[in-house]
Amino acid sequence: MADKGTEVHEELDYHKYKKKEEMKRQVITFALMIVFTIIAFGMVVSGLDKLFIIPIILVLAAVQVGFQLYYFMHMSHKGHEMPALMLYGGVFIAFLTVLTMLVLIWW
User: How confident is the model over 41-98, as pLDDT tens digits?
Assistant: First the structure.
């Protein structure tokens, strides 16, 4: 049978390891978001065609929003299912509203 002090020490080591892994993911995500921002600025400064630049910038922005939600707002953790459902539901409703307005205007 394991000593109670050993169990506590192992549990603390496990939590320390998990926190270290989470911090590593956050740093990598932050670096990727900086790279995406530099790419977006570089494309705008380069003077490329707007029809080429705008969709790419929108995709990069969507990826950054995903990174923000999952890594910095901790939506990937257990217990955040209901806030995630509400957030995704709101995004879906906003998308449908914008799509409806665009169809009504251009129809």
Answer: 999 999 889 999 999 999 999 999 888 887 777 777 777 788 888 888 988 999 999 9
> How far is 14 from 62, CA to CA, in rounded Å?
34
Three-state DSSP class for residue 2 = coil
Length of the chain: 107
- DSSP string of 17-82? HHHHHHHHHHHHHHHHHHHHHHHHHHHHHHT--HHHHHHHHHHHHHHHHHHIIIIIS-TTSTT-HH
pTM of whole model > 0.70? no
Write down the domain spans for the chain.
1-76, 77-107
